[in-house]
Amino acid sequence: MKQTTGVLLQRKYKEILEQWIQQQLKDDALREDLMSNEELRHESEEFLHSLLNAVKKDNYTDIDAPEYEKTLEALSGISTARATKGYSPRETSNYIFSLKDALFIILEKEITDKARLYKEYHRVNKLIDSLGIYTFEAFIRGREDVIMRQTSEISEISTPVIQVWDGILALPIIGTLDSSRTQVVMENLLMKIVDTESTIAILDISGVPAVDSLVAQHLIKTVSATRLMGAECIISGIRPEIAQTIVHLGIDLSGIITKASLAHALRFAFGLLKIEVKKSTDKIKTGI
Amino acid sequence: MMQTQKLIVLSNEVITILKEHDVVFLRGRISQYADKIQMGLLNKTKLLTAASELVRNMISYAGQGKVLCEIVASIGLEKGIRLTFTDRGPGIKDISLAMKDGYTTGKTLGLGLPGAKRLVSVFEIKSQPGKGTTVVIIKWKNG
Amino acid sequence: MEKIPILKMGDFLLVTIQVDLYDRLALNLEADLVGTINKYQSKGVLIDISAVDIVDSFMGRILGNIAQMSKILDAHTVVVGMQPAVAITLIELGMPMSGVFTALNVERGMELLRAKIFTDDADTETDSAE
């Protein structure tokens, strides 16, 4: 009685593993600098074990089925780990594709019927391709995590909250203002308001390249949140083109105080706080 | 259509809500879970506020219900809190209408559903008039 | 049953909320407040929410109610000590909170109340002068 290929492959686990390891060691792209051969062997053992377990059920097409859960988990772990270690996506996928060669060699040895051999090649080929793509996807997610982390770090640095006077804070915003950056801005600003007991915050957007309805929404939210803290928010640095765009887009900024520049906003803030700035009448001291 | 993304469930607990005061206990548990995965203060506040809205809705229209609290991890290994609110209340006839700001059929402000949606990462709602309603929300650790 | 204490501070009343406001408690607070405003003819109410971690739409509505009720009784209301996370969440939630004045802390809140009352008195004077 013919045994299913799945059972056959499981029986040949050791051989397949050895073949695979050999394929990997032969590969020029082996990164011995990033991972020791022992680690590589251990990783391959685990993965192959779970894969052959899954293949037992003779399902070569649906990797979302429950039998592949452990395999995908292992793959995901391998891929993300390599992404963090610095492997290229090609190197990571080749790890899986090299398994194909090992499997083919074993299949060829065990199956003599050419028609059946072709059919099994085809099935295994599709399966490994599918897993290869999954590896790539997981790799990309791993990289995206790194990007996200870096983005949030940049967000933190690029939105300083500066106390320019007693009770007056200034925030020069440089770069695009998306929703996640807005959250960071709001958090930092509000906490600084509490810390410094400030009553006025000046948001300077001269460094924001484009203001569309979404960005305007973010600005409005920030102003509203500031007001809930008992402080007032002034938006400064609105370039003429931006003013035009805002009106054309029908954005309603009527509830918001806007000034052309940070200097204007500061002057206005002094007015609100009833602070006067006068030139000193001591002519002798400074000589200016 | 329920989310088909694969999630790993790391822990779960069902909390029964019988009266409004149970919200306090629920909030405490959710807060503990959020702290466990080290969710930041702002995200935690949003999650708890969304949960508060949904529980009030549940009590207001169905009198009682259950909340399934889970700590989940996505394939990308990001952790989050998933809450599933189920009740056997009158259900919602027109979900798209219910998701509009200000729409209300009862004594609430009509901000509960759309408001909660804005505060979380994933929001799904299923309802059958006469049978009940199920709302699933997920808040990722990093929003 | 819990009751939220109301402190009299001269012309003002101070309410410090430190527990979760559920239905009955909130309604009682509203009733107690209007009663007390009336009793002392208070000119201002300060609601201190610095210990409140979560403000949902229900709580937001209660605050709005209190502001409106007080106004009818000729008293101004200022909510003080809102936590940053709460403020951001309220905005995201879409709570209008219009008609509710806010200040950073009790001290500022009292300054704000005094300023409002001063303006009220000034208006009344000009009205009667005409």
Short overview:
The complex is a heterotrimer of chains A (288), B (143) and C (130). Chain B is an alpha+beta fold and 143 residues long.
Structural summary, described in words:
The complex is a heterotrimer of chains A (288), B (143) and C (130). Chain A is an alpha/beta fold and 288 residues long. Chain A is 63% helix and 9% strand. In chain A, strand 2, helix 7 and strand 3 form a beta-alpha-beta unit. The termini of chain A are far apart. Chain B has a single domain, classed as Heat Shock Protein 90 (2-Layer Sandwich), CATH 3.30.565. In chain B, 34% of the residues lie in helices and 32% in strands. Chain B has 4 helices and 5 strands. In chain B, strands 1-2-3-5-4 form a 5-stranded antiparallel sheet, with helices on one face. The longest helix of chain B is centred in the middle third of the chain and has 22 residues. The two termini of chain B are 22 Å apart. The mean pLDDT of chain B is 88. Chain C is of the alpha/beta class and 130 residues long. Chain C has a single domain, classed as Transcription Regulator spoIIAA, CATH 3.30.750.24. Chain C is built from 4 helices and 5 strands; from the N terminus they run ββαβαβαβα. In chain C, helix 1 packs parallel to helix 2. The longest helix of chain C has 24 residues. The relative contact order of chain C is 0.15. The chains are: A alpha/beta (288), B alpha+beta (143), C alpha/beta (130). Chains A and B meet through helix 4, helix 6 and helix 7 of A and loops of B.
Number of strands of chain A: 5
What's the overall geometry of chain A? elongated
CATH class of the largest domain in chain A: Mainly Alpha
Determine the number of helices of chain B (DSSP H or I, runs of at least 4 residues). Answer: 4
Euclidean distance between termini CA atoms of chain A: 106 Å
* Strand arrangement across the biggest beta sheet of chain A: 1-2-3-4-5
**Radius of gyration of chain A from CA coordinates:** 31 Å
Task: Round the mean pLDDT of chain B to the nearest integer and report it.
Answer: 88
Instruction: Provide the spatial order of strands within the biggest beta sheet of chain B.
Output: 1-2-3-5-4
Largest interface: B-C, 24 and 21 residues
Helix/strand-derived class of chain A?
A: alpha/beta
Report the uncertain regions of chain B.
none
